[in-house]
Amino acid sequence: MTDGAAARSAGPGVKPSSGPSSDPSSGPSSEPGKAALWMLGSLASFTLMAIAGRELASDLNSFQILFWRSVIGLAIVACVIAASREGFAQIATQRPDLHGVRNVFHFFGQNCWFYAVATIPLAQVFAFEFTTPIWIALLAPLALGEPFTRFRMLAAALGFVGVLIVVRPGVAEFGFGQGVALVAAIGFAVNVIATKKLSSIEGNLSILFWMTASQAVMAVVCDLVVSGSEALPAPTAETGFWVTIVALCGLSAHYSIAAALRCADATVVAPLDFFRLPVVAVAAALLYAEALDPFVFLGGALIFLGNFLNIRAEKRRLADAA
């Protein structure tokens, strides 16, 4: 979904990296209390971003939301780069092609996510987003040559059953919005796989710079195709507020999850991440009178269980290999 997608999907062999020199053998410190506090920040960021996306839907399309989000994000990232010791020399890239693949799929996934946020219950959006690590487990053997273990197979099976429980084909409505939310998760999965390849050779600031810069351009082009010759609407006081929330929460969610994973293992962080589902469901019930669907919670729990078992198995496999 968001910039935090790569960090959230650390289970199937994908770990957040602070740069090319990260040492994969150095595990996180054991500070579950700090990890929980950071995950509270992540939870608040994702919930606020979903609410902001819903509020903006009546005034801006998803391309316009992503344009202003990318512009604000680019300004922040550029300031951080300018203040860093290496400066803008660190954005020189060895793999513009891989940046292109990553950013196209990330842009595609984010557009689908914002469309889903505006059209279907928010709890469903988050339940479908939890399938991202499962798609990674299915795609990683093809894209990265990673083994397709029995636990990855189990995670995929549980995730598939979880999705069926959420959508209940033939019983509940499975409309275009639900399909778009599921496709968004696939886009995020490809983004994470490309991020893993990039993070071994380039730092986070380079990845974030090219992401925000390229997606601002993509958003303008796509909006011109959709809206014709009309210029991008300037934000009003209200839309400017919500767009700023989207931009800041996207960055804070990414930072919070990365910080949580530095404080504790993914097997501690992953269960905390699941609390996003009930929190956003309650927020949507209070703000938008959306019904609390027990099937969304049950399906989401199965999707989470598959991811969690895969993370634990992956940890043991890497420990045995070490």
Polypeptide structure, described:
Helix content is 74%, strand content 0%. With 322 residues, it is an all-alpha fold. It starts with a helix and ends with a helix. It is globular. Residues 3-8 and 10-27 have low confidence and may be disordered. Helix 2 runs antiparallel to helix 10, helix 4 (96-119) crosses helix 9 and helix 5 (122-129) packs antiparallel against helix 12. It has one domain.
Write the layout of secondary structure elements.
Layout lengths: L4 H4 L23 H25 L5 H22 L12 H24 L2 H8 L2 H12 L6 H18 L8 H24 L4 H24 L9 H27 L2 H9 L1 H13 L5 H28 L1
Give the structure's gist in a few sentences.
The chain has 13 helices and no strands.
| Uncertain parts | 3-8, 10-27
Averaged pLDDT: 82
Global geometry: globular
| Count of β-strands | 0
Helix/strand-derived category reads mainly alpha
Cα distance spanning the termini: 32 Å
Number of domains: 1
Helical content stands at over 70%
Radius of gyration, in Å, reads 19 Å
* Beta-strand share of residues: under 5%
> Can you summarize the main beta sheet?
none
Query: How many helix segments?
Result: 13
Helix-strand pattern: HHHHHHHHHHHHH
